[in-house]
Amino acid sequence: MARKRKGQPVHGWIAIDKPEGIGSTKVVSDVRRLFDAAKAGHGGTLDPLASGILPIALGEATKTVAYVMDGAKTYRFTIQFGEARSTDDREGEVTATSDLRPDDGAIRAVLPRFIGEVSQVPPAFSALKIDGERAYDLARAGEAVELAARTVRIDRLELIERTGPDLATFEVACGKGTYVRSLARDIASALGTVGHVARLRRTACGPFNETNAIPLDKARSLGHGPALRASLLPILTALDDIPALALTEDEARRLGSGQVFSLRETPSAFGPTQVVKALCDGRLVALAQVEGGFVRSLRGLNLETSSSGEDDVDHCRA
After folding, report:
1. pTM of the model
2. Distance between CA atoms of 54 and 42, rounded to whole angstroms?
3. Contact, 84 vs 185, CB < 8 A?
4. For residue 278, which of 237, 248, 314, 234 has the smallest C-alpha distance?
5. Catalytic annotation, residues
6. Which one, of 75, 25, 84, lies nearest residue 51 by Cα?
């Protein structure tokens, strides 16, 4: 006997402005319940300590999560100088102190060291795995955690304001895998002192930002009605940076059935191996790969009609 699927076929993205004090998993669960969606996932975890933009994918949009997680992100964060903490944020125990408080000139002088391709050691309290165990589980158990340095990309780093000798607020635009807690720790170290993240907010995650996000409390207050539905963004929102490939109806059917076919356009219009969003009459059909003049499907999109009678394919129009 077939197992009945729970939830409705809702497809699209919603950018939630997450408050402090709640984890990403709980926010995803709340949003899925509000939409009565069959499937949901997020485009990049935010710790309970952090606030800001948490993109949530519903239905077939979950197939595009990787493109959001790989995208650029922008954070605003405040370093409190004078205390190092075990978690590199305000929730940890104090592990070292310093009386040195850097001035604005000293801070601005060291920032260029952290722009570009930067070697960074992740925090001991992170979700990275060591021999199958989460680093934060080992750290909480009192075990020594040694994580290897890795290269991350930082595109922009600016001092925004000082609200006292102990506190400095920065804005950073960075690539995938950057730990702001590590960045704050390393900035303090470069200044000859110690520090930790006192406040952290993500202001942008890929194409999602404060202008197209909705506060979690507002989403909850809208309930299950059409006003909440209106906040749903098209699946294509997550694919802004991916080239489009227009298909005929016949090509769309062939791609959907797993067939490989030759490219009608000049192959040089795309890279040697190019991921594209395959569209038919503006409708997202699949994520596909163009290679050697041929097109093959990577992830097909199965956009169904929702129980409200609204055609969810319309949410995917270019």
Report:
1. 0.87
2. 7
3. yes
4. 248
5. 47
6. 75
